[in-house]
Design goal:
Quinone Oxidoreductase, Chain A, domain 1, 2 domains, 345 residues, globular, six-stranded parallel beta sheet, alpha/beta, binds zinc ion, Rossmann fold, 26% strand
Length: 345
């Protein structure tokens, strides 16, 4: 089968590999009907994910059809349409029992697919701990509607959940890339009083204007002033940092009012500075990143009921055979790209 593979730092290429087989009782084999490219794939390509194993098939955002299940799998059956979770988790260890599935202590726990074990930019994928890692797609929900459930939408949902947003709050989201938009959609469900989005790229600001006209928009340069104008207590009550830029962490805590919650959604490529003397007296609470992707069933139900729609994010479509072209567009951010749906054919 075709499998897009991490060859070495700076190089991904299509390789021919055998179709995966069941290895453990909890495994399922999924025929991938649609996958996507994530910024984390680019982090692997650029060598900033040291635990990524050369030779693995990349890709951790996908939907498909269950082909085969091991004897230990009870939640899904062959023929089921499913979303695949970016995280592998056992459901039984201390962290899983508390909902902190990102820190599952299973040897495959956490982000394994498309990083430490073969992922889904391929025709088939083996999913360990399938009872936890797969969710059935409800009737009437399309592959495109479900495509982001297991990764960036799970991330946005988790970020909104842990940010303790209230009805009086002014919420600032920094970054209107795909993860920022997923975060925005999930924050909207909580109906805060005001929503501000800061984004440096004009194409992306236009995307927000076109689809979410109720949101206040600003550039990073305008951000502190805009937040002050639109908040009741000198800063945002909640800040969600989904940009991961050079100065966006600093912008996040500067725009927060005293005693605010600052949730870091982004994955940085460099260390960030926590200037405690300058923060003194602000009593901020930081939540420091790493989705616990255990809300997928709830997210799929919200999609089915029309409460979340991420399909506007899909700006491009390519068959798997042309995934290299898709990567080029995604990596160079050409042609107004947000997300790319990679189809089996
Ligand atoms: Zn991802
Ligand atoms: Zn676990």
């Amino acid at each position: 089968m075709k499998a897009f593979t991490y060859i070495e730092q700076g190089k991904f290429a299509m390789r021919d590999k055998p179709v995966p087989v069941l290895q453990d009782p909890g495994d399922a084999i999924v025929r991938v009907t649609m996958s996507s490219i994530c910024t984390s794939d680019l982090h692997i390509k650029h060598g900033s994910v040291p635990r990524a194993v050369p030779g693995i098939t990349v890709g951790h955002e996908m939907v498909g059809v269950v082909e085969q299940t091991g004897p230990g799998v009870s939640a899904v059956r062959p023929g089921d349409r499913v979303t695949v979770n970016v995280e592998t988790f056992c459901g039984e260890c201390f962290f899983c029992r508390h909902g902190y599935v990102n820190n599952c202590t299973d040897p495959n726990g956490g982000w394994a697919l498309g990083c430490r074990i073969d992922g889904g930019q391929a025709e088939y994928v083996r999913v360990p701990c399938a009872d936890q890692g797969l969710n059935r797609i409800p009737e009437g929900v399309t592959d495109e509607q479900a495509l982001f459930v297991g990764d960036i939408l799970a991330t946005g949902f988790w970020a909104a959940r842990i940010s303790q947003i209230g009805p009086e709050d002014t919420v600032l989201i920094i970054g209107a890339g795909p993860t920022g938009i997923c975060t925005l959609l999930c924050v909207m469900l909580q109906q805060p009083r005001r929503l501000l989005v800061c984004e440096k790229n004009e194409t992306r600001r236009q995307f927000v204007r076109d689809h979410y006209p109720q949101v206040f928009l600003c550039t990073p340069e305008e951000c502190e002033e805009t937040v002050r104008q639109h908040s009741d207590h000198g800063g945002a009550d909640v800040v969600l940092e989904a940009a991961g830029g050079k100065d966006t962490f600093e912008l996040a805590w500067k725009c927060a009012r005293p005693n605010a919650i600052v949730t870091i959604v982004a994955l940085y490529e460099e260390d960030q500075v926590l200037p405690l003397p300058r923060m003194y007296g602000k009593n901020l609470t930081f939540k420091t990143g790493g989705v616990d992707g255990c809300d997928c069933a709830e997210i799929l139900e919200l999609i089915r009921r029309g409460k979340i729609d991420t399909t506007p994010l899909i700006t491009h479509r390519f068959p798997l055979a042309e995934i290299e072209k898709a990567y080029q567009i995604f990596e160079q951010q050409q042609d107004g790209v947000m997300k790319i749906a990679v189809t089996a054919e």
